[in-house]
Amino acid sequence: MGQAGCKGLYQSLLDYKTEKYVIAKNKKVGLLYRLLQLSILTYLVVWVFLVKKCYQDTDTSLQSSIITKVKGVTFTNTSELGERLWDVVDYVIPPQGENVFFVVTNLIVTPNQRQDTCAESERIPDALCYTDSDCPPGEPVVAGNGVRTGRCLRAGSAQKGTCEIFAWCPVETKSRPAQPLLGEAEDFTVYIKNFVRFPKFNFSKTNVLDTRDTTFLKSCKYGPKNPYCPIFRLGSVVSWTGSNFREMAVQGGVIGIQIDWDCDLDRPPSECSPRYYFNRLDNRFSGNSLSSGYNFRFAKYYRDAAGVEFRTLFKAYGIRFDVMVNGKGSFFCDLVLIYFIKKSNFYRDKKYEEVRDLEGLAQLAESSQQRVRTRGLAEQPEVQDGGSGQKENGCVCRQLLQPASITG
Fold it and tell me: Hey, which family's this protein in (predicted)?
C-alpha cells in the first residue's frame, strides 16, 4: 500500500458518519410498517405487562416457619398392651411440632424383651441352618436381630432350623395387623401454622385469620368457606390425595402438604392468601408395591425389681406428613419511582450515577468556566440600586458596577 493509500486510510478513521432517513410516500409500505409497530405494542401491553407483569419487581427469597399440633384421643384393648388410652404424646413423632411429623396408625408390639439367647426368626433367610457349622459364632445375622452363638436350633425331628442368637429376646415374629390399631385417627386434626416473610419488600403474613375471637380455632375446620382456618382433619387430607384412610392406615404412607404464597403486593394484603395442595408421595405404583407404605421401629425401656433392663418393641406403621412452603412476591415499584411520579428526575438521578473519567471531568469544568466568563462580559446587567444580578438558571453572576452620573 502506497503513501497516499495509508494517508487516506488514516483520514477515514477520523470521519464521522451519521444516519440519513428517506421517507417513502408509499401507502402499502406505510401500512405494513404501522401494523408491525401495532403488533409490537400489543405484545408489550398484553403479554409483557398484563399477562407476565414484567413491570413488577419480584422476591423469591421467601422466609418461612412451620408449627404443627395434632389433637385427638382413642382407646385400644390388645393382648400385648391390654386396655390403653392413646393421646397425642403416644402417637405423634416427634412430639414437638415441625414441618415433618408422623402419626402412628398401626402397630406390631413385642413386649418384655430382654438381652438373652433365643432362636432367630424363621422369616430371616440368613438365619436358616441344618447343622451347627451353618451358624459360625460371633457373626451377625444379615438383616436379622442378633449375633450367632454357634448352635443350630431345630424343632423336634425337623431337619431345618434357625441359628441361635444373642439378642433382645424374644425377637419380633408377629405379622402386621390387617386392621389398623388406631383407625380412629381418621378424625384426628392437625393445626398447621405458617408464617411467611418477603424480606425484599418487608412484608409478612400468616395463614391464620386475624381475629380476637378466642373460640375461632377451637371450632373451625379448613374448607372453601374457611380458607384462613389452618386446622385439617386427617381423614380429609388423605381423601384429598385420592387415597382411602383405612387402607393407608394399615401399612402407612407419606403425604405432602404444599402451601403456596403467590402474592401480588400491589393489591391489599388481605388478597395475599395461601393455597394448599395435597399429594401422596409414596404411592408411585400399585398399593401392594414394596415402595408403598411407611414404618419404623422404636422401643420403650424399663427396669424390673432386680434392676434388670427390659423393653417393649414397637414396629409403627403410620402416615408421615411433609409440609412444604413456596412463595413469590411481586411489587410495582422502580418503574413508578423512576418515570411516573412528580419527582421522578430526583429518584432517577439517585438510582443511576453518571461516571466520567478524570480527563473528561477536567474538560467539562474548563468549558463551563469559559462559558461563564464569556457570558459575563457579553451580557452586562443594568445597574440596580442595591440589587444583585441573577441568571434564570440560578447562577449568580458577577456585577459590573457603573459610577452614578451627576446632574446639576
Answer: Belongs to the P2X receptor family.
Q: Choose between 395 and 25: higher pLDDT.
A: 25
- Asked if residue 345 is part of any domain, the answer here is no
Domain count of the chain?
2
70 annotated to a ligand binding site: yes
Beta strands 128-129 and 63-71 are unpaired
Residues contacting 228, CB < 8 A, separation 6+: 207, 208, 209, 273
Q: Are residues 166 and 277 in the same domain?
A: no
The single-letter code of the amino acid at 148 is R
The reply to whether 223 and 140 lie within a common domain is: no
Over residues 116-148, the pLDDT tens digits come to 999 999 999 999 999 999 999 999 999 999 999
Distance CA 29, CA 354 (A): 41
Q: Is 58 annotated as a binding residue?
A: no
Please tell me the predicted confidence (pLDDT) of residue 394: 38
Question: How many Å apart are CA 184 and CA 298, to the nearest integer?
Answer: 22
**Residue 312 falls inside a structural domain:** yes
Q: What's the longest Cα–Cα distance across the chain?
A: 156
Binding site annotation covers 69? Answer: yes
DSSP-based helix, strand, coil % in the chain, nearest 5: 25, 35, 40
Q: Using pLDDT thresholds of 50, 70 and 90, give the confidence band for residue 374.
A: low
Final residue belonging to a domain, choices 284, 310, 331: 331
Per-residue confidence (pLDDT) for residue 388, from 0 to 100: 40
262 and 127 in a common domain: no
Is 218 annotated as belonging to a binding site?
A: no
pLDDT band at 382 (very low <50, low <70, confident <90, very high): very low
Listed residue (189, 190, 191, 197) closest to 65, CA to CA? 197
Residues 279-323: pLDDT tens digits?
999 865 555 566 678 999 999 999 999 999 999 999 999 999 999
297 annotated to bind ligand: yes
Q: Which domain holds residue 162?
A: 121-170
Whether 106 has a binding-site annotation, put simply, is: no
Residues 128 and 103 in one domain: no
Through-space distance between the first and last CA atoms of the chain, rounded to whole angstroms: 84
DSSP H helices in 141-280: 216-219, 234-240, 245-251
Domain-ending residue, one of 276, 302, 331? 331
52 is in an annotated binding site: no
Is residue 27 one of the residues assigned to a domain?
no
